[in-house]
Write a structure and sequence with these properties.
The longest helix is centred in the middle third of the chain and has 15 residues, at 112-126. This protein has helices at 11-23, 25-28, 36-45, 58-63, 94-97, 102-106, 112-126, 190-193, 197-208, 212-218, 221-233; strands at residues 29-31, 69-74, 80-85, 132-141, 163-173, 178-189. It folds into 2 domains: 11-152 and 166-188, Beta-Lactamase, CATH 3.30.450; 194-235. A hairpin with a 5-residue loop joins strand 2 (69-74) and strand 3. The protein has a 6-stranded antiparallel sheet. It has 11 helices and 6 strands. By secondary structure, it is α+β, with helices and mostly antiparallel strands.
Length: 235
């Protein structure tokens, strides 16, 4: 089997995940009936990480041995989300998405399916087995909390107090039928990042390429304009 590039969990993050799963298991772990084979294949892929059996669901145990959150999709069934262990969501709830095809999961983000839905579907369908692909996404939050299932309504007035939430996303087919979607979340103060000219310019360039739908998903025009002005002021 090809190498799966995930990171072993740290003691601090293990403690955080365990505490969250003890208190909110149904909010952090969800599985569909019939996903047992996919979970077993995931555990085989993570055999070198020393998975221990704490919970009845294999994906929950897998989630406690790596830094990343883990989701499994059945690519032969509309790329359907069939199991997940999600301790650091960015404005979405695993329990509401489990069992949905990828297109339905993305539907609340207006324009996303029209813009890139077909490309995502074709890319996943054509992915080779046991080869990983990586991309990065980011969000702006008002704090450094990892568990954010709901959209923040009131961020601090000054973007100087915001946090960049970076989400590294790994896609890896553990078999011809099942896809692992792994998410590695990191939070850093925005004020620290804009001190680097290249990072500030990249962020500004990405923001200026947003269309109206992307701005709405980002948090609306007020948040969008505040951030652009802050990036200019901090030069």
């Amino acid at each position: 089997m090809g190498k799966l590039s995930l990171q072993p969990i740290t003691p601090t993050l293990l403690h955080q995940k365990q505490a969250l799963m003890r208190s909110r298991y149904e909010d952090t772990v969800a599985v569909m009936e019939g996903s047992e084979q996919a979970q077993a294949l995931l555990l085989q892929a993570l055999a070198g990480f020393g998975v221990e059996e704490h919970y009845q669901h294999g994906i929950a145990n897998a989630g406690l041995c790596v830094v990343e959150d883990l989701c499994l999709l059945d690519v032969q069934d509309e790329q359907r989300l069939i199991a997940g262990c999600l301790c650091a969501p960015s404005y979405w709830c695993l329990g509401e998405k489990i069992g949905q095809p990828l297109r339905d999961i993305h539907a609340p983000v207006q324009g996303m399916n029209d813009k890139i839905g077909d490309r995502i579907a074709h890319f996943i369908a054509g992915m080779p087995v046991h080869r990983g692909f990586f991309r990065r996404n980011y969000f702006l939050h008002g704090d450094a909390e990892r568990f954010h299932p709901e959209t923040e309504v009131n961020l601090p007035e000054d973007p100087h107090n915001w946090f960049v939430r970076s989400e590294g996303q790994t896609l890896y087919k553990i078999s011809s039928r099942y896809l692992l979607f792994a998410l590695h979340v990191q939070c850093e103060p925005l004020r620290d990042i804009v001190g680097f000219a290249e990072a500030r310019l990249t962020l500004s360039k990405n923001l200026r390429a947003f269309d109206a739908h992307e701005i709405a998903h980002f948090g609306g025009w007020d948040k969008y304009i505040k951030l652009l002005e802050y990036l200019v002021d901090e030069r």
